[in-house]
Structure formats: C-alpha cells, structure tokens
Amino acid sequence: MKKLIAVLFFSCFFYAGAQSINDYKYVVVDNQYEFQNEANEYRLNELMVFELKKYGFNAYRNSEILPADLNRGLCNSLKLNVYKSGWLSTELYAELVNCGGEVLFTTPSARSNTKDYRKDYFSTVRESFKSFEDLNYQYTGDDQYIAPTRLLTIQEEQQLKKAKEVKSKENKTVDVTAEEKAETTPDNLKEVSSALPEAIKMDYEDVSITGLSIKFDNSKDTFQLFKNGEVVGSGRKSAAGVYLITAESFTGLGFQDGNNFVIEFDQNGTTQRIVLAKI
C-alpha cells in the first residue's frame, strides 16, 4: 500500500512538472558549463542541443542567434543547467529551470568511467537525457507577446548619427529667415526655453566604463536601458519579480538589490554582472 501511495505521489508530481514544461517554447543551453575548460568542449553542448531536439524541444545554445520572440513580454524559455561530479568516474545530471529560478524537471544521474573524457561525457549525456522522452513534450503555450521596437545595430546607429550630423550642418547654412531676425525679447526667451525638451532623468546608472543606465516607467513594471544616452534595450518585470532584459548585445535578468540594480547575463559561458547605483 505504501509503495502504491508513493508511486501515485511521484506520478502526480511528474505530471504537474510535465504540464508546466509544455508552457515553455524554448530551451537555452549554455555554450560552456563550469566543468568545461572551453566553450563547447568535446562538442558536448552541441550534443545536448541535438538530444533535446530529438525529444521534441526547440533548443539553442546561448552563443547562437536566438529567436526574436524569446522572453519578449513574458518568459517563454527554460535554461538547461548541467552538473558534473566525480573524480574517478564521470557523473552527470541536468535541470530545466525557468526565468524565476524554479526547477521544473531534473534528470536522473548517469555515470561512466571509461577514463576517456569525450566518451564518458557523451555516454552520460545520452543516458541522462533519455528521461526527457518520458515528458512527451509538446508546446502548448500562448504565442502572443509584446513586440518591442527593433533595436538598431551598431552600423545602423552610426549611419543614423552621420545623417543627423549632415542634416545639422545643412541647417546651419540655411539663410536666416525674417522671422528668425525678429528682435529677441524676454517673452520670446521664455517661449523658447519652455519649448526645449528636458533631459531624461535616470533612475540607476553604472559609473564604470559600460555607460549603462535605466529609466523605469511610472508602474515600475518596465524600463528602458540606455548606453551613453542612447536607448539600447528594455526590461520587463516577470511574474517571479525579476526583470527580463533584451539588449543589443545580450539577453539577461535584472533585479533590485538594496539601493542598486543588478544586471546579469551570460557571455561565452561566464556570468557577467553589472551593478547600477541608484541616482
């Protein structure tokens, strides 16, 4: 009887996890994990993507060009965490984690001790990842998302800047009109002053070399990410309370830590951390 209850309990738990996993459209695999000495060592990370796709998942390495709708407006991707242990043998297991850090599924551990690292890693990944087949994954989430304004590439940004400079020079060479020649009075100065746009007051900024700063909207649910005064990205608050950030050069997470705002993202398998101080 006790065995039957235990089986029913774990079956219900497993089913709930499988159901929630179906709400996520993508799985993102790190291009380098902590136990690896270099990116995609032994082409192991490629194998992980291949195995996930074999079981129906839409998987990408984080070094690839990611889908345009990944985490736009809501969290629709899971992160694959992989852990390795053992000295005399290679033991490995993996987790699927959502944007809020919640573990939705954990594979069983697999072990190999052939003393050939490449064979050991390939063997343990294939064996451990077999459990993904039992999930019978099929995406059932909502594809509706908030389409953000397309960010300019660095080349486009430079072209736009040059165009503005050319136009500014052209404007300076235009003859002054009769209206502009009119006598300047204190009243005119007041009108001109009131028409000038006010500089955007940032909420947080990084005083180091990154030049990053952020400006929240009134609801504190979204913000714009600036670099040296130019918009380079945006952030949106998730149900878990963290901010999902999409920028020109990275996709990451943000959260408030006391009087600071912290941005974290992955770069070549290493977690980068930028701390912005409250202004």
Q: How does this model look, in words?
A:
There is one protein chain. This protein is an alpha+beta fold and 279 residues long. It has 2 domains: 126 residues, Rossmann fold (3-Layer(aba) Sandwich), CATH 3.40.50; 93 residues, Lipocalin (Beta Barrel), CATH 2.40.128. The radius of gyration is 26 Å and the shape is elongated.
Summarize the topology.
Elements lengths: L1 H20 L4 E4 L14 H11 L4 E3 L15 E9 L4 E8 L5 E4 L3 E3 L4 H13 L24 H20 L12 H10 L8 E2 L6 E5 L5 E6 L2 E8 L5 E5 L3 E7 L2 E8 L2 E9 L1
Parallel strand pairs: 1-2, 1-3
Antiparallel strand pairs: 3-4, 4-5, 4-6, 7-8, 7-14, 8-9, 9-10, 10-11, 11-12, 12-13, 13-14
Helix pairs in contact: 2-3
What would the keywords be for this entry?
about 280 residues, alpha+beta, Rossmann fold, Lipocalin, 2 domains, six-stranded mixed beta sheet, 14 strands, elongated, disordered N terminus, signal
